[in-house]
């Protein structure tokens, strides 16, 4: 529907470019996650996801749509597996199956619900492009929440070491 609104005939390239970047990004960011930790993947991944949404919101040609897909795919291909790995890392071994199932259920629920809400929001604001620009705020919220989490856990860790 966005392709129709933006006057782009073949939006299939979005999915091809997105999938290619997912395939390239996931193994590379997995190595970074294993060596450096989740922050080294989540912050840049969130940036690329938000940038991809922003670029998508202004796409009006097949090439600009493909570029937006590549940037978004690099971001999402980093964030989604990093969040899953972080969830599993923070879960007791006996509960990892439940954690994995909960993660994917929440992910699917978020994508399904988010798609419906974004469609309704696009109708409210008048275009899918505007809705994609507004949705960048959700990525910023992710960055803020994760930053606060890191600050609080570092502060708690410092207090425990001092005691």
What would the keywords be for this entry?
87% helix; mainly alpha; 163 residues; elongated
Structure description:
- By secondary structure, the chain is mostly helical.
- The longest helix has 35 residues, at 128-162.
- The mean pLDDT is 93.
- It contains 6 helices and no strands.
- The chain has helices at 2-6, 12-36, 39-57, 62-89, 96-125, 128-162.
- Helix 3 (39-57) runs antiparallel to helix 4, helix 3 runs antiparallel to helix 6 (128-162) and helix 5 (96-125) packs antiparallel against helix 6 (128-162).
List the helices and strands and how they pair.
Blueprint: H1 2-6, H2 12-36, H3 39-57, H4 62-89, H5 96-125, H6 128-162
Helix pairs in contact: 2-4, 3-4, 3-6, 5-6
Concise description?
The chain is mainly alpha-helical. It contains six helices and no strands.
Indicate the structural class.
Answer: mainly alpha
Q: How large is the share of residues in beta strands?
A: under 5%
What characteristic shape results from the CA principal axes?
Answer: elongated
- Alpha-carbon distance between the two ends: 58 Å
Q: Could you tell me the radius of gyration in angstroms?
A: 18 Å
H-E order: HHHHHH
> In percent, how helical is the residue content?
over 70%
Number of helices: 6
Number of strands: 0
| Most strands sheet | none
Low-confidence regions? none
Q: Can you give the mean pLDDT?
A: 93
């Amino acid at each position: 529907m966005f392709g129709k609104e933006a006057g782009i005939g073949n939006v299939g390239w979005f999915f091809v470019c997105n999938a290619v970047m997912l395939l390239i990004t996931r193994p590379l960011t997995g190595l970074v996650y294993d060596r450096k930790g989740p922050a080294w993947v989540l912050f840049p991944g969130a940036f690329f996801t938000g940038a991809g949404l922003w670029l998508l919101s202004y796409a009006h040609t097949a090439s600009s749509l493909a570029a937006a897909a590549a940037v978004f795919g690099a971001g999402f291909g980093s964030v989604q597996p990093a969040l899953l790995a972080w969830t599993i890392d923070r879960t007791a071994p006996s509960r990892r199956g439940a954690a994995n199932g909960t993660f994917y259920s929440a992910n699917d629920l978020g994508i399904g619900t988010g798609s419906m809400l974004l469609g309704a929001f696009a109708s409210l604001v008048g275009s899918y492009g505007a809705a994609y620009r507004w949705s960048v705020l959700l990525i910023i919220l992710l960055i803020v929440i994760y930053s606060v989490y890191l600050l609080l856990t570092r502060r708690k860790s410092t207090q425990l070491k001092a005691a």
